[in-house]
Amino acid sequence: MLEAIKLSKSYNGATALDSLDLKIEPGEVFCLLGANGAGKTTTINLFLNFIEPSSGVAMIKGLDVTKEPLETKRYIAYIPEQVTLYKNLSGLENLEYFSALAGHEEYSREQLLKFFEEVGLQREVADKRVSTYSKGMRQKVGIAIALAKKAESLLLDEPTSGLDPKASNEFSALLKKLSGQGVAVLMATHDLFRAKESGTRVDYEARKTGRAVEHERDRARRSREHLS
Ligand SMILES: Nc1ncnc2c1ncn2[C@@H]1O[C@H](COP(=O)(O)OP(=O)(O)OP(=O)(O)O)[C@@H](O)[C@H]1O
Ligand SMILES: [Mg+2]
Fold this sequence. Notes:
Layout: E1 2-11, E2 14-24, E3 29-32, H1 40-47, E4 55-60, E5 63-64, H2 69-74, E6 76-79, H3 91-101, H4 109-118, H5 135-149, E7 153-157, H6 165-180, E8 184-188, H7 192-198, E9 201-203, H8 217-227
Parallel strand pairs: 3-8, 3-9, 6-7, 7-8
Antiparallel strand pairs: 1-2, 1-4, 4-5
The structure holds adenosine-5'-triphosphate and magnesium ion (MG).
Adenosine-5'-triphosphate binds at residues 11, 16, 34, 36-42, 206.
């Protein structure tokens, strides 16, 4: 679903990402851990086609993101540290707007409310302006947008930074739910605990993915098989 092949990025000769090989299958949650400047955001920005690779390829569903920018964006949702929403619109209006932008104009109010509830947001806040929401609530709207978009891959850049433990736990539970539905997740995080909790695979240094540690993978796969 998400694949990087010898993906590299440098800025004026300085290496930001060095020959990353990575494959994330549907249902996997791949956590990128690493020091500041390790290349985590660079990796995500390359998948989003926000920046051009110096060499190598980033692929979504087997398509090169630089060659099929529009097609590949249809399959992904992106959740940064601060989900960007229109503050003067309600949570539900934001959800409606961003799903329509992704080509899903068909949702009724009731269907939109279902996405809202699915991520643990109360119906009572759906019509309140986003400017009144907490950070945890805004991040959840981001997940609701991903659900409404029916994104097959999710790219997350430190999505739980600044969330309290409860909100962070709820966010991880949502990621697990999405991975259970077959979504491929790539998450950059500094939170080792969160990575162990939510990750089916964890890599400690973005630039050295050849040495990826995969200890969580089999356990998560087994538990998913058990659930299904
Ligand atoms: N636009 C740019 N111009 C020059 N260098 C850049 C640019 N963007 C990133 N870099 C460099 O690329 C390297 C990787 O940066 P990146 O933002 O991917 O790290 P990161 O792992 O996300 O770090 P953090 O944990 O701080 O978010 C860093 O050395 C950074 O200085
Ligand atoms: Mg970063």
